[in-house]
Specification:
By secondary structure, the chain is of the alpha+beta class. 47% of the residues lie in helices and 21% in strands. The strands form two sheets. The chain has an eight-stranded mixed sheet. A three-stranded antiparallel sheet has the order 6-7-8, covered by helices on one side.
């Protein structure tokens, strides 16, 4: 993709303008805003400047090929540069392509048992363990918000906050219906059963203003069932908040009612913000030429087949025969493929924009 020079100059002009304003700013709020924009622009500006240097070097080398004494050396270096330039241009294009504003945000992870009774709850537990192990490998922190155990183990529902750099950007494609095919431990005839669990990944954005009026919420307290054992509350400290205009209901079941109220309000803001995101995504989906899946959380996105040891992602037609490793948290082969597909779609959008 040949990126228009005017677009590249625009990026550098804005970067230098922000740097100059940062040096002159005295207002604390403006300094914070400029610092954030500077941090976002710097990798783009660095990449644009690197591309400009490479293009200038190529022009110099092409001129040197006219010199008989320098031609052979220039041709060798020109070949190397010709091999590396497309990669530099692609890196810049990806940085310029429209991207998710919440890419670097932490996230709220929700896993719920779907069809399949006890086996679905066990599968939901397996999925949550998979994500927990993956989070550990990335150095992310997981904080449990609420959990309802299944009768035979696993979870009917489990909600946790995953904190770290780039959590949402890597996990956002996990939202949807996950299907498992395996022989349950209670199956005496060895028949394969199909069960399902739904996963939702919501961005946690701290600096987004979501206005919630007291008249629009109802707060109830109750005794939490917790996750068993010493985690079961003996007082009515768990909190349930219902947002009346939307019907959204959130709960938190720590030991402190005050902590639970704060957590539930935070989770309510996350869900209201996610509603806004989904409305924008729906509006964009008609004009976007390609994307990874539909973004619909009722969409069946992946199948985990135990007898064959395979995992299939239906959105990108990818099948990996490494089920045990994936369940142990080795998610990067799947996530990298999904991110690459999304990057290709964003590059296609950018190419269409530049004509």
């Amino acid at each position: 993709m040949r990126l228009p020079q005017a677009r590249l100059d625009q990026v550098l002009d804005r970067f230098h303008e922000v740097e100059a304003r940062m040096g002159a700013a005295t207002d604390g709020v403006e300094i914070v805003r400029l610092s954030k924009e500077h941090a976002e622009l710097k990798p783009v500006a660095d990449a644009v400047q690197g591309l400009a240097r490479a293009r200038a070097e190529m022009a110099d080398l092409e001129a040197m090929t006219a010199d008989p004494e320098m031609a052979a050396m220039a041709q060798d270096e020109l070949q190397i540069l010709n091999d590396t330039l497309p990669g530099l241009e692609r890196d810049v294009a990806l940085l310029l392509a429209p991207r998710d504003a919440d890419e670097n945000a932490s996230a709220v992870l929700e896993v719920r048992a779907g069809t399949g009774g006890d086996e679905a709850a066990l599968f939901a537990g397996d999925l949550f363990r998979m994500y927990s192990r993956y989070a550990s490998t990335r150095g992310w922190r997981i904080e449990l918000d609420s959990a309802t155990e299944g009768d035979a183990g696993g979870y009917k529902e489990i909600i946790a906050t995953v904190t770290g750099e780039g959590v949402f950007g890597r996990l956002k494609f996990e939202s949807g219906v996950h299907r498992v095919q395996r022989v349950p431990s209670t199956e005496s005839q060895g028949r394969i059963h199909t069960s399902a669990a739904t996963v939702a990944v919501l961005p946690e954005v701290e600096d987004v203003e979501i206005e919630i009026h007291d008249k629009d919420i109802r707060i109830d307290t109750f005794r939490a069932s917790g996750s068993g054992g010493q985690h079961v509350n003996t007082t009515d400290s768990a909190v349930r908040i219902t947002h009346l205009p939307t019907g959204i209901m959130v709960t938190s079941s720590e030991k402190s009612q005050h902590v639970n109220r704060d957590k539930a309000m935070k989770n309510l803001r996350v869900r209201l913000y996610d509603m806004q995101r989904q409305a924008k995504d729906l509006a964009r989906s008609d004009t976007r030429k390609s994307q990874v899946g539909s973004g619909d959380r009722s969409e069946r996105i992946r199948t985990y087949n135990y007898p064959q040891g395979r995992v299939s992602d239906h959105r990108i037609n990818l099948t990996l025969h490494s089920l045990p490793q994936i369940l142990e948290g080795d998610l990067d082969p799947l996530l990298n493929a999904l991110i690459a597909e999304d990057q290709a779609a964003r590059l296609a959008d950018l190419e269409a924009e530049f004509g």
